[in-house]
Design a protein that fits this description.
The protein is mainly α and 239 residues long. It contains seven helices and seven strands; from the N terminus they run E-H-H-E-E-E-E-E-H-H-H-E-H-H. The protein has one domain (2-91, 104-238). The radius of gyration is 17 Å and the shape is globular. The chain starts with a strand and ends in an 11-residue tail after the last helix. The protein binds zinc ion. Zinc ion binds next to helix 4 and helix 5.
Length: 239
């Protein structure tokens, strides 16, 4: 992905993501993190121009995600938009790891911390994911931002499946930013996004509020937001 250069996201790309997702859901592979894209798309393994550093991509992901929510909040919700703080990178293995409330931030993970209203990520998690493709960084940041958005919503707008809703909000923000022209989504990104969601998924389907959902659930939820926008991420009763 790249920020602020190109104007449109071809709808064919959204369709390509949907194709990937459909394929992933019917494999019956027990949530194995394997993209079925090889059978449906000749997408290149890495996008052209993908030589940005992880820090560059983090900055671009923050700008694109915050820019989307800032631009669209008032179309969607009452009140004004407040950006969460960006605490940014931490070293989850260090003895002086920052706290969220009384809890140290988790190693090799990323968080939205309600107590401080900030988003943060272990730099190792970002570096490792970035080697698989830059879309990882965008997904993680937009997902944690999704939790910040949830914290700003009335209770009835927040899904019990909060992690899947955060994926949906991430899809809505990233593809919404692409439609706004603040983010360019390249062909290889759709596959990378599916692979990242699968790699970060639970092995079992969603059953309670702390679950992230299995690979097909995470991909389907992200895709719903990407295709249909923020309102499609809200619980049925309020849509
Ligand atoms: Zn989450």
């Amino acid at each position: 992905m790249a920020a602020r250069w190109y104007v449109t996201v071809p709808t064919a790309l959204v369709a390509a993501l949907a194709l990937l997702l459909t394929g992933c859901g019917d494999g019956g592979g027990g949530g194995t993190p394997r993209s079925p894209g090889g059978t449906t798309s000749p997408a290149p393994p890495s996008p052209p121009g993908g030589d940005e550093t992880v820090e560059d991509d983090i900055d671009a992901a923050v700008r694109a995600t915050d820019g989307f929510w800032s631009a669209h909040w008032t179309e969607l919700f009452t009140g004004g938009y407040r950006s969460p703080q960006v605490s940014g990178a931490y070293d989850g293995a260090a003895p002086d790891v920052p706290l969220c409330g009384d809890e140290p931030l988790p190693d090799d993970n990323a968080v939205y911390c309600p107590a401080g209203d900030y988003v943060a990520w272990d730099l190792d998690l970002m570096r490792q994911g970035h080697r698989m493709g830059d879309a990882w960084v965008y997904l993680v940041i937009a997902h944690e931002w999704g939790h910040a958005i949830q914290s700003r919503l009335n209770e009835e707008l927040v899904s019990l499946a909060g992690e899947l809703q955060a994926d949906c909000l991430a899809g809505a923000a990233l593809f919404g930013a692409a439609r706004d022209g603040t983010l360019r989504i390249e062909e290889g990104d759709t596959r990378e996004l599916a692979q990242a969601l699968a790699a970060l998924a639970d092995a079992t389907p969603w059953t309670d509020t702390t679950d992230h959902g299995d690979a097909s659930e995470r991909i389907a939820s992200f895709s719903r937001g990407a295709e249909s926008g923020v309102r499609a991420c809200l619980p049925d009763v309020v849509r």
